[in-house]
């Protein structure tokens, strides 16, 4: 795993999530894609188990920092970490290679992480405002449509399937 490239990618995605993605919306200004969720599925599907756990928790940390609705740390770290690890384990059984399957994986992960984040936020004394239609369906659906097309540039940047070393013929 190229950790410096990963760190740059996460910082850029978190900055884009809080600034540029606000300009990309469908039907309503509050419905926009979740870039960090897309990265979560990308790394959970393409990394080995140890790297997938680390990247899932780091992306959850970045999602908590980039999310103005929660107001505190924790829900997204835990939900991204746990479900990213589960997706990595599931990917060892079921291959998620085609675009429709990747989109479906992003959609399902968006739903379960949003529900888990919301339930974890109820542990606090002050529950946050929550729109079930927006956070549990529309945002994951938009992310699922856009996400598989972002896998190619992220794959290029991370060199996940880059040129393999050639063996020398003697």
Automatic annotation (TrEMBL):
Keywords: Cell membrane, Cell shape, Membrane, Transmembrane, Transmembrane helix
Pfam families found in the cross-reference section: MreD
Cell compartments where the protein resides: Cell membrane
Membrane-crossing residue ranges in chain numbering: 6-28, 73-91, 103-125, 137-158
Record carries keyword Chaperone: no
Domain of life from the UniProt record: Bacteria
GO biological process: regulation of cell shape
GO cellular component terms attached to this protein's record: plasma membrane
Keyword Acyltransferase found: no
Bilayer topology: Multi-pass membrane protein
Listed InterPro entries: Cell_shape_determining_MreD
Family membership: Belongs to the MreD family.
UniProt-recorded name of the protein: Rod shape-determining protein MreD
């Amino acid at each position: 795993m190229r950790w410096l490239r990963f760190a740059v990618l996460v910082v850029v995605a978190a900055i884009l999530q809080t600034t540029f993605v606000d300009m990309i919306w469908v039907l309503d200004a509050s419905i926009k894609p979740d870039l960090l969720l897309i990265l979560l599925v990308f790394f959970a599907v393409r990394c080995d188990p140890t790297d997938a756990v680390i990247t899932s928790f780091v992306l959850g940390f970045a999602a908590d920092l980039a999310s103005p609705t929660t107001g505190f740390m924790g829900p997204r770290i835990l939900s991204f970490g746990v479900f990213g690890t589960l997706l990595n384990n599931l990917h060892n059984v079921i291959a998620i290679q085609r675009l429709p399957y990747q989109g479906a994986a992003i959609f399902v992960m968006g739903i379960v992480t949003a529900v888990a984040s919301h339930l974890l936020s109820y542990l606090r004394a002050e529950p946050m405002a929550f729109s079930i239609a927006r956070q549990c369906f529309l945002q994951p659906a938009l992310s699922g449509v856009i996400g598989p097309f972002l896998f190619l540039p992220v794959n290029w940047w991370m060199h996940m399937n880059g040129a393999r070393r050639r063996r020398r013929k003697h």
